[in-house]
Backbone:
């Protein structure tokens, strides 16, 4: 260990130059990193349950269903039915939407004198207006189990609009288009809109990833910088530990992109973890260097390195083993990737 410390100090310019070059190299690939907010893609490819889930979802379209719930005091009002019709028609204009099912656009099967009559539940171009027409519509809908409790709630205060997204479409972009279309309808404040289904779940996951990258990382950086400043009260005491961690983050994220891995809800917090944990080890070295009494700075640095090398190395090994357990003990691939990259970072 002493020989390694002496080698590093003797060839410090070369070590710094190589480190900077590698940092630039790995940093270049960060621009190509992609975000994957699809939680279902983290299911194990060879797991029987995951295979069955994906097959059923693809066969019956469950993984491509976007649901919009409308809640108000009473669905059976002329203005409310008109709002449902407007939302239905606007969502149908999105090219990636294959079909839309709602109160104003759902097939109805009923008996007639000639046998069976198939038509629309409600004529979207001739919505009921009078109280009597609305009451008759309510009685008819609630007489059918296929509508009551599924398409419309039993207390008649909420209803669903179900949109089927075509296979292969960008779900995040489609769900954003749906929200934009609904916003353009200008619904009154008394009408509440809720979103459900895997496509909207993927959309929200993407927002969480973006939020963590934009806000969580910088906030953690500022808090750690403030703590370092309060403890060491010098620019060097703040810059050196943080610079070490920044280099580690750049290398880790660059390698992640270079190996064609994507950022997920879990791997997106790797920079924050490295900031929180990785900054501790340079602090130990810097703190020990401050208490060394040897007037020769090179000799003092060697002594400081030798003093902290064993405990810091053991701490790093313990962290590596801890994160390695995620690789072998996790069901979701996103957690396995999280453990893989963090254990190598340490």
Residues:
């Amino acid at each position: 260990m002493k020989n390694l410390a002496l080698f590093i100090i003797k060839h410090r310019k070369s070590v710094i130059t190589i480190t900077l070059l590698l940092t630039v190299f790995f940093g270049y690939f960060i621009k190509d990193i992609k975000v994957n907010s699809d939680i279902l893609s983290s299911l194990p490819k060879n797991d029987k349950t995951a295979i069955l889930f994906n097959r059923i979802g693809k066969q019956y379209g469950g993984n491509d269903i976007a649901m919009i719930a409308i809640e108000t005091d009473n669905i059976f009002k002329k203005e409310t039915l008109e709002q449902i019709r407007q939302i239905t028609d606007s969502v149908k204009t999105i090219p990636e939407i294959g079909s839309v099912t709602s109160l104003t656009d759902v097939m109805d099967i009923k008996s007639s004198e000639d046998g069976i009559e198939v038509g629309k539940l409600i004529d979207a171009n001739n919505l009921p207006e009078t109280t009597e027409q609305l009451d008759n519509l309510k009685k008819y809908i609630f007489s059918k189990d296929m509508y009551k409790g599924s398409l419309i709630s039993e207390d008649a205060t909420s209803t669903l609009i179900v949109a089927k997204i075509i296979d292969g479409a960008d779900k995040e972009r489609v769900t954003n288009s749906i929200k934009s279309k609904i916003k353009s309808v200008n619904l009154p404040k008394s009408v509440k809109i809720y979103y459900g289904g895997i496509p909207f779940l993927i959309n929200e996951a993407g927002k969480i990833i973006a939020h963590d990258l934009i806000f969580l990382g910088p906030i953690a950086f500022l808090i750690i910088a403030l703590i370092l400043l309060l403890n060491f009260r010098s620019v060097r005491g703040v810059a050196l530990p943080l610079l070490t961690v920044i280099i580690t983050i750049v290398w880790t994220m660059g390698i992640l992109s270079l190996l064609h891995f994507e950022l997920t809800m879990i791997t997106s917090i790797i920079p924050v973890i490295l900031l929180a944990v990785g900054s501790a080890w340079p602090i130990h070295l810097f703190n020990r260097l401050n208490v060394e009494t040897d007037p020769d700075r090179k000799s003092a640095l060697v002594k400081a390195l030798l003093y902290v090398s064993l405990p810091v190395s053991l701490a790093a090994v313990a962290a590596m083993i801890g994160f390695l357990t995620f690789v072998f003990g996790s069901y979701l691939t996103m957690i396995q990737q999280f453990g893989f990259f963090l254990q190598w970072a340490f």
